[in-house]
Amino acid sequence: MIRPVSAVLALGLTQIIGYGTLYYSFSVLAPGMGREFALSTEWMFAAFSVSLLASGLCAPWIGAWIDRAGAGRVMTVGSLVAGLALGASALAVNSVMLVLGLIAIQIASALVQYTSSFTLLVQINPVRAQRTITQLTLIAGFSSTLFWPFTTALGERMDWHHVYMVYAALHLVICLPIHAWLTVRTRQRGASSAELDPAIATSPSVAGVVGDAQRPRAFGLMLIGFAIQSFVTSTFLVHMLPMLSGLGLAQASVLVASVFGPAQVLSRFTNMMFAGRLSQRSLAIIASLFLPLATGILLMTAPSLAGAFAFAIVFGLSSGLASIVQGTLPLELFGSDGYGKRLGRLTSVRLVVSSAAPFAFALMTERLGIPEALSIIAGLGTVAVIAFLAIGPLLATRRDNGPGAQT
What we know:
The protein starts with a helix and ends in a 7-residue tail after the last helix. The model is unreliable at 188-203 and 397-407 (pLDDT under 50). By secondary structure, it is mainly alpha-helical. It has one domain: Up-down Bundle (Growth Hormone, Chain: A), CATH 1.20.1250. The protein has helices at 4-36, 41-69, 71-90, 95-112, 114-124, 129-140, 142-157, 160-186, 193-196, 215-249, 253-258, 260-273, 280-301, 305-334, 339-354, 357-367, 370-389, 392-400.
C-alpha cells in the first residue's frame, strides 16, 4: 500500500527530471546538434516534430497498456527506455542516428510523463485524483525553471553528447528505482481498490458528468480544445529562447524564460488552494484565454523587457492550468473507468497536432516574420476557447436527463 502523498512526492521528482531532460533541454541543445551535422534550425525542429508525431502515434497503445498492466510498471519500463534513448542519441555520429535517437526519446517520454503519472494517481485513488494531479503538476512545474538554466550551464562546459549522457544517468539512477518502488508498493495481488486505500472503500470509481448520448461530441470538442492548446503551448516552449532573442531580448531571454516556471507553479498552487470553486471545464477555458492574451502582450510590447516578463508570466499561468486540466477534465467529464485508454487517445491527438508546431512556427517566422507568426498563434488560441465553451450545453443536456444519464 502507498499513500497518495508519497506517490505525489516521488512522481514529482521523476516528472521534473523527465520533462527537463526529454523535452525542455532540446531547444537549448538543438543549435549545437545542428552545427555538428550541418542542419539548419528549421530541419532540427522538423526532426523534433517527427519525434513528437511518433510519440503521439504510440500514445493510444500506451494508454491501453497502462490500463492493462498498471501505470507503475509502464513507467519503470519507460525509465529504462529513456536512459537508453538518451545514451543512444549521445552516441550519434550522423544526422540519421540523431533523428532516430530523438524519436526514441519522445516515445520514452510518452511512457514516463503526465499520461502515465496521472493514470497512476487515478489507479491509486480515483476519488482524490483531481487533487493529487494538481499537487503533482505543482511540483513538476519547476522543471523548466531548473532545466533551462541547468542545460545552458552544462552546455557551456561540455558538448551536447555529454549532456545527454548525464541525463541518461539521471533516468537510470534516479527515475528507474523510484518507478520500480512505486510499482511494488501499488501492486497487491488480488487486492481491490478499497484494500489499496480504505478511503475509497465506498467509491471505487468516479462517474463522469456527460451522458452516453453526448459523449462523442463532448470528447471531440475536448480533443479540439486540447489539441490547439497543445499546439500553441508547444510552439512557445520549444521556441521560447530563440523567439525572445529574435524580438531583441537576446541578453535577457534566459532570465525572462525562467519566469515561466514559477508562473506555472503559481497557477497550480492557486488552483489547489481554491479547489472546488470552479469546474475543470472553467479552468480549461481560462487556460485557453491566457494564450491569446499572452501573445497579444508580447506583440504589443516587444522589445520591452517588462512586456516580455508579462508575457512569460501569463503564458506560465496558462501552461500551469492546462497541464492540470489535461488530466482532470477527462476525469470530470467521463469518469475513471477506462481513464488510461481515454487519456492515451487524448495525448495521441495532442501530440500529433502539436508535433507540427516546432517546424511550423520556424517556417512561419522564416517566411512571414515573428509578429505575423504570433498573430496566427493568437487566433488559434481563441479557437481553443470556443471549443471548451461549446461543451457547456452538453453538460446542461445531461443534467436535464437526470441521474439516470450517469455512466
